Amino acid sequence: MTNGINNIEQDIKRKIGKVAILTQAEVKRNTPVITGRLRNSIVTDKRSEYEWVIGTNVEYAGKVEVRRNMFLKGSNFAKKKLREELSR
Questions:
Q1: Which site from 80, 85, 86, 87 is most exposed, i.e. has the minimal number of CB atoms within 10 Å?
Q2: Beta strands 43-48; 51-55: pairing state
Q3: What's the pTM?
Q4: 17-31 pLDDT, tens per residue?
Q5: Burial degree of 69 (CB within 10 A; 0-12, 13-18, 19+)
Q6: Maximum CA pair distance of the chain?
Q7: What distance in Å separates the CA atoms of residue 25 and residue 32, rounded to the nearest whole number?
Q8: How many angstroms separate the CA atoms of 54 and 51, rounded?
């Protein structure tokens, strides 16, 4: 029983990491480009087995995100991808 639980736990951890990488790619794809600085600064950071953070250290990133969200509806990409991965 413990072995089965460990396998499930490892599978979930792997899938969370996969979704983080896919989400980073989607964020980069949807980032507007003038110089490329913002898009190139977007990184994925694994904080723990179950926590990944996608972000940037570019100071104007928040303003770009707010402006884009005024015109685009949020897609909940990460949630959708995680549901897809966990259902496999």
A1: 87
A2: antiparallel
A3: 0.76
A4: 999 999 899 889 888
A5: exposed
A6: 54
A7: 13
A8: 10
